[in-house]
Design goal:
Helix content: 55-70%
Order of helices and strands: HHHHEEEEH
Oligomer: single chain
Strand order of the largest sheet: 2-1-4-3
Distance between the termini: 41 Å
Shape: globular
Number of helices: 5
Length: 150
């Protein structure tokens, strides 16, 4: 554990919700790793799963280093995973997350699913973005007098 603390000291400064979202990103890696590896072993190239897997690996790395843009990059994934559509003709749009708490509507053969867990995670992402911005502004305000003295 000391290795982890020395390698990623910025991770220790996250709030509890920030740490949970970082590890949810790791869970998303595992969630997309298994189907991608299984597809590759069967000779099928699943570009969407492979792309989402690489996306989450990069985000996980930069979330551990507390980069603000990585938090912004999480927003599109969780917006897309908040709503799932399955149409009567078999066409569907589903992005899965490790945690799902959903409500389903089935009007005229189409199925619409609202994932409340993703919406809650979006709220915590926005909360952490606000907190990191506040920390950056506070840090800049302490540095400002030093620049003026020089």
């Amino acid at each position: 554990m000391n290795w982890f603390k020395t390698k990623f000291p910025q991770y220790q400064t996250y709030s509890r919700s920030g740490k949970i979202i970082v590890w949810l990103t790791f869970a998303n890696i595992l969630n997309y790793l298994v189907p991608t590896v299984l597809a590759l072993t069967n000779g099928i190239v699943d570009l969407l799963n492979a792309t989402i897997l690489i996306y989450h690996i990069v985000l996980f790395w930069f979330l551990l280093h507390k980069k603000l843009w990585a938090w912004y990059a999480l927003i599109p994934f969780y917006i897309l995973s908040s709503f799932q559509f399955v149409f009567a003709n078999g066409a569907h749009f589903v992005m899965s997350t490790p945690i799902t708490l959903s409500f389903s509507l089935t009007p005229s053969g189409a199925k619409i699913v609202i994932n409340f867990a993703s919406l809650i995670i979006l709220f915590f992402i926005m909360k952490n973005i606000h907190q990191i911005k506040r920390e950056i502004l506070l840090e800049q305000s302490f540095r400002l007098p030093e620049k003026e003295k020089s």
